[in-house]
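Hi V.,

Quick status before I head out on leave. The structure for the redesign project is tokenized and pasted below; the design run finished overnight.
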């Protein structure tokens, strides 16, 4: 069985286990939908009071909101194994068993659990994104293909953050909560235009954690919005590729961590 087929079987088993209790699944998904869309209520209230911020109106910012939340929901669904890696695998010694299996540890941890709960965040993010695309006055429909491209780049970028968090567990044993600054904090930061931040933070969110590359720059091209930071137009089209570059770096960090793993001694 090839790796893709194996992952599909593990994902199917995970989904069937969660759907064994449809009432619980429905309540969790609905709760996730409601609690996450309340954050958009904060944005709505902000723009209702001030009209526009930094040359951005609510409709255009809603596109940023939709892109980053849809991307994060996919990473959250796929990366559960990395999120709990320190406590469930390193501290208990269970990672030793994964190393005995003739499959990639990355593949096995991706198959740990395919979470269905983030479907609430996915649906509300997709809803806000769809409304924003329909209401934006200057949408470039030729550039609409950037939407799935940006979502894929964002999903792999957030997945890279989770893999980096898991790799740090080889040193810290338990997962570090500070990584929530890059996951949930990144989702919050990605909802606002990049030009509102100070210069050092703009550099960090473009070239270190390429958050702006998967929401801000694609949104500029889709809405034909001028870029106050002066980046070339071609960069807006290719910027989501930085998410894949970031994932590649985190996979390299993961492989280095695995090569130096000496078990928990349990």
């Amino acid at each position: 069985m090839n790796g893709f087929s194996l992952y599909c079987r593990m994902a199917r088993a995970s989904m069937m286990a969660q759907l064994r209790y449809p009432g619980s699944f429905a309540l969790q998904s609905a709760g996730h939908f409601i609690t996450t869309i309340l954050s958009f209520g904060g944005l709505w209230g902000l723009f209702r009071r001030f009209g526009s911020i930094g040359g951005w109106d609510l409709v255009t910012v809603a596109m940023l909101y939709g892109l980053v939340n849809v991307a994060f929901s996919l990473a959250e669904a796929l990366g559960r194994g990395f999120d709990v890696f320190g406590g469930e695998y390193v501290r208990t010694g269970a990672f030793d068993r994964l190393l005995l299996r003739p499959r990639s540890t990355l593949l096995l941890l991706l198959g740990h659990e395919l979470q269905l709960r983030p479907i609430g965040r996915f649906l509300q993010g997709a809803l806000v994104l769809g409304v924003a695309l329909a209401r934006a006055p200057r949408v470039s429909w030729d550039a609409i293909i950037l939407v799935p491209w940006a979502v894929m780049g964002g999903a792999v970028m957030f997945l890279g953050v989770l893999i980096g968090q898991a790799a740090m567990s080889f040193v810290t044993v338990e997962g570090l909560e500070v990584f929530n600054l890059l996951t949930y904090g990144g989702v919050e930061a990605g909802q606002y235009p990049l030009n509102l931040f100070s210069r050092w933070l703009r550099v960090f969110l473009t070239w270190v954690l390429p958050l702006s590359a998967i929401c801000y720059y694609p949104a500029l091209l889709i809405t034909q919005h001028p870029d106050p930071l002066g980046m070339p137009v071609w960069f807006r089209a290719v910027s989501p590729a930085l998410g894949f570059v970031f994932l590649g770096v985190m996979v390299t960090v993961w492989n280095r961590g695995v090569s130096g793993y000496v078990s928990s001694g349990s």
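Above is the designed sequence. Residues 213 and 238 are 8 Å apart (CA to CA).

G. will cover questions while I'm gone.

Best,
W.
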